[in-house]
Amino acid sequence: VTCVITDVLVGWGGEVARDLGVPWVAFWTSTVTELTVYSNLPRLISENAIKGTKLTVFCIDPESIIKIPGLPDFQVRDYVTLSNVINPNFPMKFMIESLVDTVRRTAGADMILANSSGLLEDDAIKTLESSGIKVTPVGPLHLIDQDNDPKDPDKVISWLDEQDPASVLYICFGTVAPMPVGQMEELAMALDSTGVSFLWVVRHDHLKDIPPGFTAKHGISNGTNGTNGGTNGTNGGTNGCTARHRGLLTDWVTQPRVLGHRAVGGFLTHCGWNSVMESITAGVPMITRP
User: CB count, 10 Å around CB of 73?
Assistant: First the structure.
């Protein structure tokens, strides 16, 4: 063994490397800018920089200016983690504290590999390197293992094939954080009123949150029907999908393949780093909803 490479969350990787007397290379899957912010959080907290002059612990000033060397100044409202990190009532506070501790340990790695590019985050990379943290961008990694499987069991690609070039808005908010029901309803109404063709990825357990009248008008892929035990009977949806449907709902897609399709002209995204990288490399404009 000449080197140990682990995800940053596998903190004991560094201990194993030290025991073996070999370098530890940590792999950071998110943005280098985020790594830079987390590495500065202890200082920002100690300097009371997050609260600002107008604040109490329970009232965060969203316009407080945050200064991190090498990065543009930004407001607390631009990065919600900064509000949560000092809020004692934030239910996931332990996760933020865990990430800060992870970044502290990661700073001791011999090298950090990041799924990013110097063309995107050169300032953040240089900021970390100036503090002694060696970062090597190796992304976008999704380009290494592209899924060229011609199979299309849910008929998503075949539906896209029938659409005009750059005419479809692709919508996906990730697989982790749920979207409030009210916002799902508002988005459905917006899509109905604009007349834009769309491909909307909805977790199968959230399809019930979309107004039945909306699903009745648009196609639902076989994949979504299958995971819901037949959406047509439950939610008034349309069985299957055909080119005549202006919109299509499904519960899963191979995202790089969809973003690379000629019919997709825009991406409404929650700004997950993989989604951002995949959209940039495909040259698809983004409408961002962090």
Answer: 9
User: By the 8 A CB rule, do 169 and 265 touch?
Assistant: yes
The pLDDT tens digits of the residues spanning 124-145 come to 999 999 989 999 999 999 888 7
Contact 173, 144 (CB under 8 A): no
Tell me the CA distances in angstroms from 38 to 116, 127, 227, one per residue in order: 17, 13, 38
Q: Quick one: which of 259, 281, 261 has its CA closest to 165? A: 261
* Structural domains in the chain plus CATH codes: 4-139 (3.40.50.2000), 156-288 (3.40.50.2000)
**Residue 191 pLDDT > 70:** yes
The two beta strands, 65-66 and 74-75, are antiparallel
What's the chain's Rg over C-alpha atoms? 22
The whole-model pTM stands at 0.82
Q: Which two tokens stand for residue 129?
A: 């390197």
Cα-Cα end-to-end distance for the chain: 41
- Burial class of 4 by CB neighbour count within 10 A (0 to 12, 13 to 18, 19+): buried
Which is higher by pLDDT, 37 or 53? 37
Burial of 217 (0-12, 13-18, 19+ CB in 10 A): middle
For residues 203 and 174, give the distance between their C-alpha atoms in angstroms, rounded to a whole number: 9
pLDDT, tens only, 248-266: 999 889 999 999 999 999 9
**pLDDT interval class at 59 (50, 70, 90):** low
- How far apart are the C-alpha atoms of 16 and 112, rounded to whole Å? 16
